[in-house]
Amino acid sequence: MRRLAIALVLFTIGCGAAPVTPTEPVEETAEAPPPRYAIALRFEEEDPSEDGTPRTRVSLVRITPDGERSVHELRTELGACYYEPHPGALTAGVCWWAGAGARYVVLRRDDAILALRAEADEERGYGEPEELASVEVPEAAELDVL
Predict the structure, then answer these.
(1) For residues 70 and 24, what is the distance between their CA atoms, to the nearest angstrom?
(2) Are strands 125-126 and 130-136 parallel, antiparallel or unpaired?
(3) The whole model's pTM is what?
């Protein structure tokens, strides 16, 4: 029995002494996910005008992946503003009071987010949109629209 125990100990020691062959480090091939930015068209109630007409401040907000916010004030509109879907837009809204107002549309073009505004009145409809602001985002960035 004693010889068997000695043989097992020697066998176990012998197995642990096998040479180790070094391996190459495995290179990570997975790409980092694209950065995520948040974009918002923001409507904030302002104090009414001197004649009591409601007013709304309109802003374009960009939030970077590290949480930095940039707020681009676009205009203060007479009347109330509300969100309204628009074909091809990330987000859009309309401001309206007493038969006149404006449509805001936020679009993505390559490495930029654009905020456009078109004048409106109930007789002529919407005019030609004008660009009010442009903020940069990497072309590969994913967007969360708030």
Answers:
(1) 46
(2) unpaired
(3) 0.77
Residue 20, beta-bridge partner list: none
Identity at 125, one-letter amino acid code: G
Task: Write the single-letter amino acid at 127.
Answer: G
At 92, list the tokens.
Answer: 């859009």
Rounded distance between C-alpha atoms, residue 73 and residue 9, angstroms: 80
Q: Where do the structural domains in the chain lie, given as residue ranges?
A: 36-145
- Residues 36-78 have pLDDT tens digits of 999 999 999 999 999 999 999 999 999 999 999 999 999 999 9
Ramachandran assignment for 91, one of left (phi > 0), alpha (psi -120 to 50 degrees), beta (any other): beta
Copy the structure tokens of residue 75.
């205009």
Compute the distance between CA of residue 50 and CA of residue 46 in angstroms, rounded to an integer.
12
